[in-house]
Amino acid sequence: MSGPRFPEGWSIELLDRSHPRQKFKSGNGDVDQWLKKSALQSLKKHLTTTKVLLDDACNIAGYYSLAFSQIDFSDLPADLAKKLPRRQLPVSVLAWLGVDQSFQGRGIGQRLLATSLVDCYEASQTFAFIAVILDCVDTQAKRFYQQFDFAELPGYPMRLYLPFKSLETLAIGG
């Protein structure tokens, strides 16, 4: 299985010290600060995995960070929780996703999201989880993710989830 295509000469790489993080500007200070100040440390501590999309000149066009966590069954919508054990349940977390302003408006965010979901699906073959969750940085981000079948968690208007069955459908087209 492979993710979406990017322009010729572009690549997705695991973040490392050589990537020009300080030049990245998405227009959202939190998204920028995560990449510039925290992503590499979090990667070294095995808390998150951050991948960067590099253009053909090795500029960071965008990035995403993934992690695993747990969610209490009681925080899930009733239709998702009804057949699950009443305990903490494993989830994949799309912790961060950002696109540099100079690359916005070209579908890069959609392709990065698709790539991150393929990564989640591939990880599910080794580490099981029930959904992908994320916390939206603002209402614009919320609208973006809702286009791709992410739904609100009851009682948490800025926390969205994508059930595993939906992830599987998106990732393998089945």
What characteristics describe this protein?
single chain, alpha+beta, Aminopeptidase, 7-stranded mixed β-sheet, 5 helices, 31% helix, 29% strand
| Strand order, largest beta sheet | 1-2-3-4-5-7-6
In the CATH scheme, the class would be Alpha Beta
What's the structural domain tally? 1
Number of helices: 5
Low-confidence stretches: none
Report on the biggest sheet. 7 strands, mixed
Class derived from helix and strand content: alpha+beta
Order of helices and strands: EHEEHEHEHEEH
CATH-defined superfamily: Gcn5-related N-acetyltransferase (GNAT)
Shape: globular
CATH topology: Aminopeptidase
CATH architecture: 3-Layer(aba) Sandwich
Taking all residues together, what is the mean pLDDT? 94
Which band does the percent of strand residues land in?
25-35%
CA-CA gap between termini: 13 Å
The total beta strand count reads 7
Helical content class = 25-40%
From the alpha-carbon coordinates, what is the Rg to the nearest angstrom?
Answer: 16 Å
